[in-house]
Design a protein that fits this description.
Blueprint lengths: L8 E4 L3 E4 L3 E5 L6 E3 L6 E3 L3 E6 L3 E10 L7 E9 L2 E9 L4 E10 L2 E10 L4 E9 L2 E7 L6 E7 L7 E8 L7 E10 L15
Antiparallel strand pairs: 1-6, 2-3, 3-16, 4-5, 6-15, 7-12, 7-16, 8-9, 8-15, 9-10, 10-11, 12-13, 13-14
């Protein structure tokens, strides 16, 4: 099912944006980010987030991202933002002209963790699939929108009923770039139960 863009709401707005049924373009503000405490000790909670809410406990959200990132930590991707201390994100963060980081951050009860792998800085497009199974989540990535690979499985302690999910883009340092989101759709949960797992409770 194609996403109805009229159901999307900003948690915080970016520098500029355009929204149409076909695509969403975001121009990031400098010095915007999401991070809570761990290791770096600082707390950043000002990244633009565009989401919709749902009480559906089993679904997948797919989106294609294209980005003109060029400065360290420029990033865009998928997000589940519940509040400042409870959220997850999956994205590509620019590092330098040689490589960038494909990674995810999960924040529970005000503490973030970060998992990454290096990919070429020449990559300027990526598909993501975010799946929910009750209060557990899976983030996957794909170069072509057909074959997806697991990035992260995690638990969100406060994702017990209604949640908000969608897209984000930010520039933690003194930078700004354009991120484009397209091909957004919601499907039945494509993160299948594990072999031997009990049937889903609806």
């Amino acid at each position: 099912m194609k996403i109805d863009v009229n159901k999307l709401e900003w948690t915080r707005e970016p520098l500029r944006f355009t929204i149409s049924p076909e695509k969403i373009e975001i121009i990031t503000k400098p010095h915007t980010d999401l991070w809570q405490r761990t290791y770096y000790h600082f707390r950043n909670d000002n990244a633009p987030v565009l989401q919709m809410s749902t009480e559906e406990k089993y679904f997948s959200f797919v989106v294609k991202t294209e980005f003109e990132s060029k400065h360290r930590f420029d990033q865009c991707g998928v997000v589940v933002y519940l509040d400042s201390g409870n959220w997850l994100k999956g994205s590509i963060e620019y590092e330098n002209e040689v490589f960038q980081h494909l990674g995810s951050v999960v924040t529970n009860n005000g503490y973030s963790d970060w998992a990454i792998t290096e990919i070429s800085a020449s990559v300027k497009s990526m598909w993501y699939r975010l799946s929910r199974r009750e209060d557990d989540f899976c983030i996957e990535y794909s170069a072509d929108g057909k074959v997806f690979h697991q990035m992260r499985i995690c638990h969100m302690w406060k994702a017990q009923n209604s949640i908000c999910f969608g897209i984000y883009a930010c520039s933690p340092e003194d930078s700004s770039f354009k991120a484009t989101f397209s091909n957004m759709q919601i499907t039945e949960c494509l993160w299948l139960p594990h072999d031997g797992q009990a049937p889903d409770m609806t």
